[in-house]
Amino acid sequence: MKKILVASTALVAVAFAGQANASEKIKLSVGGYMEQWAGFADEDNTAAGGRTNAFQSDTEIHFKGSTTLDNGIEVGATVELEGETSGDQVDEQYLYINGGFGQVKLGKDDSAADDMGITAPSVGPVGVNDGDMSNWVNAYLIDTVRSSGDQNRLTYYTPSISGFRAGVSFADDSNRNGANGYDNQSGSGDNIVSGGLEYLNDFDGWSLGLSATGEESGDGAWYGAGVNVGFGNFTVGGSYGHTEDDYGLSDGRELDAYDIGVSYALDAATVSLTYGYEEVDGEGDISAVDLGLAYALGAGVTWKSSVYWFDQSADSTNTGVTDLDGDNDGYGVVTGIRLDF
């Protein structure tokens, strides 16, 4: 019996090896995007570090490739190279495996919570929720999906079943996952566990997107939810996020944020109007509005513009948090081109 089992195992191994060898070697394709923006801003509190720059840019080169084994399993890789950065030259790099079981990703990537979080519709280059407003003015960054960013982690997504999909991510405590260097293996960091549940479906004349996401690190956590409803050319939605005061990324502050917005698409143009608000417990609050435009000029070429306004208020007991440093309000305009290749 043992000989039969060994022989059977050997045959299975040989068969799988034959299937793997029959597939083609992975060849990487080149893609990515380039964004070039010009704008101006007027704000009250320029002494606190108000941005006076007139230009911003963001460029990434993506190398992607995959192969499908004879057993139907797809194996691939993604490497994203930053066009300009003072930190890591490589933004994200991970391996993925797709099959009837779902998807497994291993490498430096966003968490399942970050990937699955739904926020209010917004098409402009600035935005009010985890956008680029702080690149142009001295404003605190509103964020309802406050994830840990790109980390060396393992992520699993279930298959989509009737519109439902779940995901979970785990990053260990080696401290090789922080944004400031990858040379500490002392285990002095915190394990990061992230998860999400989403529902995406199209119906007769309308669509629905729902998400519930969260992340735990150390003794604290953040969690949130989002919804988008599409009907005709309109999409309406919003999101909410709460961060506990003992979550590592909040620096001892309890955070509550939400956004709400609407977009309208007509032929090559889409416009959006989005409002965001965040309260930083014991420090202050900020509200912001963004009117955005995205116009497809051609294949992979989009003109985008934002007109935005913000009002930031610091409590009298504010201890001088870096990003919420005093009262400030103002407005600005940004326009430019995004190329996708």
From TrEMBL:
UniProt keyword terms in alphabetical order: Cell outer membrane, Ion transport, Membrane, Porin, Signal, Transmembrane, Transmembrane beta strand, Transport
Compartments (UniProt record): Cell outer membrane
Record domain Porin: where: 7-313
Gene3D superfamilies assigned to the protein according to its UniProt record, in alphabetical order: Porin (2.40.160.10)
Any single GO BP term: monoatomic ion transport
Cellular compartments per GO CC: cell outer membrane; pore complex
Principal location listed in the UniProt entry: membrane
Keyword NAD attached: no
Membrane association type: Multi-pass membrane protein
GO MF assignments: porin activity
Segment forming the signal sequence: 1-22
Subunit structure: Homotrimer.
Protein name (database record): Porin
UniProt organism field: Thalassospira xiamenensis
Lineage of origin: Bacteria, Pseudomonadati, Pseudomonadota, Alphaproteobacteria, Rhodospirillales
